[in-house]
């Protein structure tokens, strides 16, 4: 019996005993995804083939977009665009969000969260891109999403001066800052720098009193890492004045990370943080391990740096010990062969785990080989749907070739730990 038919059989038995469970389990393969309902936490990892984008709908309907990338090599090294090349990644992400977000009072993204300033997360600068109707900037990634759906608060690592570790002066950043200036004029958009350690910066905007167990903890930004106690943080990077300029932190190392918690359920996401330095660089260039240790064990985690081998180290995997891993793959080499083997290693932590990838390039299949057959999914949007209260969740795969929201697989339910 396959895993799915086992689950189906179990549900038939359970649904005769507890009729309410059947309603909760109404997500059916081949059917459109049932809409988000109040009390549910939805975490969508959206596949565009152009970079990272995750849409979170919190239990009271507050929404957050984590990255909106548009920057990737073309196939065969890079992924094929999804659903297709007829629209930009940002427009596809906005259309996805408009289908998935609660429409009351009006569809809006309450928080847009930029893990770091690279094109596959923020939207790369492109001379041929369309120009905004709202200001003097072009549309790519997050600036593109905001053309279709309002963003209320923008969170990044640099506001207001964008000067760490050195002034961020390039066409992408200048375009992004023109976007911030235009969108914040007249009080439309609020912009904040993420403060590591806090759990009161990203909050439920609508009914916080109804879901007291929901929190978002800021784990890290710019090398400042939460200690795990109250709101205190520790500086992982040495002071710039004590460091040769060629060793200053890289953009990936400055990535922002958060932990989203709902009852017993915990989720980690942390951009492109590396766990080991590039050859010959100082050991402190590896930053993911203290961040993962501050997060502690989680139910679900997004791999750092698209599953590449400079991150997702053994100590990282062991610290998070996730039941569900998500690979935000977009190019050949995602995931790295060694990372893949670490994820499945029961020497690092015991028990089963399921691994889901947005896409998989032919070159990756050839390099990693047969072990990749263990992946629970290698194509499609990945939705973690957490039941009210956070005790249980499922992973649904959605067809990424159309906008019909068709469920192609259901995994779980999993018990939160
Ligand atoms: Zn990236």
Taking the alpha carbons of the first and last residues, their distance comes to 27 Å
| Largest sheet: spatial strand order | 6-5-4-3-2-1-15-16-17
Strand coverage percent: 15-25%
Q: What is the rounded Rg? A: 20 Å
Shape: globular
CATH class: Alpha Beta
Helix content: 10-25%
The CATH topology, please? Metallo-beta-lactamase, Chain A
The tally of strands reads 17
CATH architecture: 4-Layer Sandwich
Structure description:
This protein has ten helices and 17 strands. The chain is α/β, with parallel strands linked by helices and 417 residues long. It has one domain (40-412): Ribonuclease Z/Hydroxyacylglutathione hydrolase-like (Metallo-beta-lactamase, Chain A, 4-Layer Sandwich), CATH 3.60.15. Strands 6-5-4-3-2-1-15-16-17 form a nine-stranded mixed beta sheet. The chain has an eight-stranded mixed beta sheet with strand order 9-8-7-10-11-12-13-14, covered by helices on one side. Helix 6 links the parallel strand 5 (151-156) and strand 6 (190-193). The two termini are 27 Å apart. 49% of the residues are buried. Bound molecules: zinc ion. Zinc ion binds next to helix 4.
